[in-house]
Amino acid sequence: RHYNFCAGPAALPTAVLERAQREMLDYQGRGLSVMEMSHRSSEYVAIAERAEADLRELLAVPDNYRVLFTQGGATQQFAAVPMNLLGRGGRANFIETGIWGNKAIKEARHLFGSAHIAASSAENGHVEAPQQADIALSDDAAYLHVTPNETIGGLALDFVPVARRGDGVEVPLVADLSSTILSEPLDVSRFGVIYAGAQKNIGPAGLVLVIVRDDLLDQAVSEMPSLFSYRQLAEAGSMINTPATYSWYLAGLVFDWLKRDVGGLEAMAEINDRKAAKLYEAIDRSDFYSNPIAVRNRSKMNVPFVLADSALDNAFLEEAEAAGLLNLKGHRSVGGMRASLYNAVPESAVDALVAFMGDFEKRRG
Ligand code: PLP
């Protein structure tokens, strides 16, 4: 297998794919594939429950939080969050740090007419994130939404915000953790709602993980479609309809891999720290490569970089691909390069990338 630096859908651990392959036709002697099982069968319910239990253990999810395995991508949550949290009035507040957060803002405005930007990095072109002191919630804030890691820009918040209004009331913090979940330990209790599209650190695209605090299950608008409703999803064990059974099973294999093969999220974070440090060092020691993000806000998961001469971009990408380094092209909206270093990208991939970058610079720089 080649090294895959894709931002999403991203690489899955090879050990997970191998196990899925072994179990594809005949799941543990049952004579059928997981894909063919009834979601109500005891075999499948055991798979689903194991996945949730392993996730809860990995993230130390407190008992007063529900874990939902739902569908529609993280984008569906851009709508589901305000619909679940604004039923008692108030306004969605946002820290705006890039393209994904902006899509969430747009959706909240579309559905509820308005949204308040409590802090933004738009003025500096999203290269340096706001700090706690910059956050000014509206008086009617119902919650504060953040995108702790902007996957396209490679901008990461370096703190967990406290969402306190002028009147002293602390409102729930909502986080789109699509591109960082499970990359390091997380204090779930700081958040009201966490959601993450699966296709980076969890499993196949389409599946979405939502972790929601119990007291936020009854704040939804009254005309809520059942499939969007956190309360109904929680009450039905995420099985209002047929869930994404195979994706949920694969997510469970990834959680199992994280627990058993990697040794948990602290061990994962150490590896991820080393990977990111190696790549940023390579970028920083050369005049040929550069990354625009303020050092404190550099993402460990998505590392955008540009070549001093953009005329060499295509040659860089073609030669990288020939060397087995796939999907290094930056997002179509920003250009340049981007290396995504999610959990399944091994340290050896970063070593190979750094060696290739050095070699390319020597030959073409
Ligand atoms: N939020 C973030 C931070 C993302 O990186 C992405 C990208 O995949 C999304 C939301 C959108 O996810 P989806 O394509 O699953 O709707």
From TrEMBL:
Pathway involvement of the protein, from the record: Amino-acid biosynthesis; L-serine biosynthesis; L-serine from 3-phospho-D-glycerate: step 2/3; Cofactor biosynthesis; pyridoxine 5'-phosphate biosynthesis; pyridoxine 5'-phosphate from D-erythrose 4-phosphate: step 3/5
Keyword terms: Amino-acid biosynthesis, Aminotransferase, Cytoplasm, Pyridoxal phosphate, Pyridoxine biosynthesis, Serine biosynthesis, Transferase
Reaction(s) this enzyme catalyzes, per UniProt: 4-(phosphooxy)-L-threonine + 2-oxoglutarate = (R)-3-hydroxy-2-oxo-4-phosphooxybutanoate + L-glutamate; O-phospho-L-serine + 2-oxoglutarate = 3-phosphooxypyruvate + L-glutamate
InterPro entries (alphabetical): Aminotrans_V_dom (IPR000192), Pser_aminoTfrase (IPR022278), PyrdxlP-dep_Trfase (IPR015424), PyrdxlP-dep_Trfase_major (IPR015421), PyrdxlP-dep_Trfase_small (IPR015422)
Keyword Nucleotide-binding found: no
Transmembrane segments: none
Top-level EC class: transferase
CC cofactor note: Binds 1 pyridoxal phosphate per subunit.
Function field: Catalyzes the reversible conversion of 3-phosphohydroxypyruvate to phosphoserine and of 3-hydroxy-2-oxo-4-phosphonooxybutanoate to phosphohydroxythreonine.
Quaternary context: Homodimer.
Name assigned to this protein: Phosphoserine aminotransferase
Organism annotation: Halomonas litopenaei
